[in-house]
Amino acid sequence: MQFLYPNVFFVMLIPLILLIVLILTSKDTMQKHFSKSILDKLSVGGKSLNKTTRNGLLFITLLLFIVALSRPVINQKEQDIKQSLIPIVIALDVSKSMMANDIYPNRIELAKKKLKEIINISKNSTIGVLLFAKNSFILSPVTEDFISLNYIVDNLDTNLEFSNGSNIFAVLEATSHMLSDFKVKNLIILSDGGNDNGYEDEIEFALENKIAIYSVGIATSQGAAIPQKDGYLTDSKGNIVNVKLNESIKNLSLKTQGGYIDYTLDTSDIDAIITQINSQSKKEELTTKKIKTYTELFYYPLALAIFVLFLALSSLPKIRIKSKSVNSLIIVAVATVGFIPSKSTASFFEFENIKNATKYYENNEFKEASDEYRKLSTTPQSLYNLANSLYKEEKYKEAIDTYSKIVTTNKELEAKKLHNIGNSYVKSNNLEKAKEFYEKSLKIKDDKQTKENLDIVNKELEKQKKQEDKKKNDKENQKQKDDKKKENQEQEKNKKNKQKDKNSDDKKKKDEKSKNKNKDGNQKNDKKDKNSNNTQKDKQNEQIKKESISDMEEKKWMQKLNKQKTPVYLQKVKTKNESNIDENQPW
User: Fold this and answer.
1) Residues 136, 168: contact at Cβ < 8 Å?
2) 354, containing H or E segment
3) For the segment 267-289, what is each residue's pLDDT rounded down to a tens digit?
4) Of 414, 456, 413, 412, whose CA–CA distance to 434 is shortest?
5) Residues 502-529: pLDDT tens digits?
6) 367 near 357, Cβ under 8 Å?
7) 267 burial class (0-12, 13-18, 19+ CB within 10 angstroms)?
């Protein structure tokens, strides 16, 4: 037999010694005043244990508790546990075509959702994540830490400017590199199919490197345009590009002993892929852990200690209450009832009102319920019920006033009161105050519904802030356009003035040419000076325009930086080959 926690003996040694000293040295009141011979004559034999025996039983109880806390075990062995996992690399297409919105809100957002579903559904797997367009980037190496992986995916910004094209070859080379230590190589591609129509070279590479490709088609056969800031993406001829699902990726998957499935709005597509991977792939032994096995014995001394403790406590003196004492207590209790305040007595007759109010409330007759609740005496609970009924009547201001009158030491009721005040402010479209009271409620009690309501309010406040920022930006842009328009008008006016001056100068030249050549020369100099002044004025206007645009750009980028999530670092994978990409359709 061994003890898992032998240090318990040393820790509990001090209280054990103190108990022994107290047992040996303590005397009761009778022993202090009478000798042992007199006590023997005075003592009357009884069924209860004497003090020494009882203390001895308590000592044995404590000793058995210490043994139980030390965790006695037998048959202790050490075993090796091998961890077997299936390696998977998930490749997310981030090319321009994935911004098409034939799937709401767009293809890439659905692909991100599917990526998270794979991470959450996969069991007994180790997962790595790639992003790919014309090049491949490692978002996460192969890992079993799915919590961190989910965090990385949540903070992924797919609006980054990636090179055009979908290079499947780069994905295969990166997968081969990431799974170089594994015999089994599984690749899941979340894409609309890329640009190639054959994938012969990719199939050959996958078979040589034993990579099984599974793909989910994230697109529709009808296709959609690719939205941009200034409209939709167009080709070299100016026609709007319509990008459809490239079904060649299905051939790529099936010929590499993998599988293909079209996207679904639920998780059935991911379930099918993971099921197929689990059935076709062999698990690989990654790590070996040593664990100890043993048979626990602590419950034996624990059970014995409880039994001995009951024996010791059963010998305590019995409390006897005379019948006269009982009668006296009853008389006191009855007399006390007479001094209960009339307010409490009155509440006894309010049961009918409470019953009626509850009935009206359950039947959605909230006005009648409020009238009944008003008839009740003012207590925290009656005010709470009245406020709830007013809330149901959509009298939110009156409900808030009633909730505010509740003063209670009951934390549960206080938290509910604050929660409902928050709801009332939401209905009154005062989200800032709603947020304040939800936060106050959470400080008192950690409630799931309150958290959800607070999250919704925070999201709505953020949305309102974005709308306000957008309006502000639109206003600034409009102002900039007006300034530009005004500047163009000034320039047009200047041109007209120049033309007018020029015509006037030409006329003067013709009239005075024969009279005075020197005057003609002075007119030329005056014209040069005017042109020079106009040029300087144009330069100043251009400089003002540039500075204005620069300030606008600075504000725009500062807003983007403030809204930006935690940055995620990508490692670019160097590849030797590229898939065939149609340069006329690089998206």
Assistant:
1) no
2) helix 351-362
3) 999 999 999 998 888 776 655 56
4) 456
5) 666 666 666 666 565 555 555 555 555 5
6) no
7) middle
Predicted TM-score of the model (pTM):
0.44
Is residue 295 within 8 A of residue 75, CB to CB? The reply is yes
Band (7; pLDDT cuts 50, 70, 90): confident
Mean pLDDT (whole number) for 483-497: 77
Identify the CA nearest to 357 among candidates 390, 327, 328. Answer: 390
| 376's tokens | 């009740």
Residue 369's identity, in one-letter code, is A
Residues 318-324: contacts with CB under 8 Å, at least 24 apart: none
Cβ pair 577, 201 in contact under 8 A: yes
> Taking the CB of residue 1, how many other CB atoms lie within 10 A of it?
9
Task: Using alpha carbons, select from 206, 184, 185, 186 the residue that is nearest to residue 251.
Answer: 206
Query: Residue 541 is which amino acid?
Result: N
Distance in angstroms (rounded) separating the CA atoms of residues 451 and 439: 9
Q: Write the DSSP assignment of 250-301 as a string of letters.
A: HHHHHTTT-EEEE--SSSHHHHHHHHHHHHHSPPEEEEEEEEEEEEE-THHH
Q: Is the pLDDT of residue 560 over 80?
A: no
Q: Which residue, chain included where needed, has tokens 């990526």?
A: 115
DSSP bridge pairs for 228: 231
The answer to whether the beta carbons of residues 274 and 86 sit under 8 Å apart is no
The pLDDT, as a whole number, for residue 128 is 94
For CA atoms 465, 466, 468, 472, the dihedral sign is: positive
Quickly list H helices, 70-199: 107-121, 146-154, 168-178
| Phi and psi torsions of 371, nearest 5° | -60, -40
Spatial CA neighbour of 54 closest among 312, 314, 316:
312
d(CA 90, CA 264): 18
Q: Hey, what are 551's tokens?
A: 């300030």
Percentages helix, strand, coil for the chain (3-state, rounded to 5) are 60, 15, 30
Element counts in the chain: helices (H) and strands (E): 22, 13
End-to-end C-alpha distance for the chain, whole angstroms: 71
DSSP character for 260? E
* 305-343 pLDDT per residue, tens: 899 888 888 755 544 444 444 343 333 333 333 333 333
Q: How far apart are CA 295 and CA 506, in angstroms?
A: 116
Q: Is 387 helix (H, G, I), strand (E, B) or coil?
A: helix
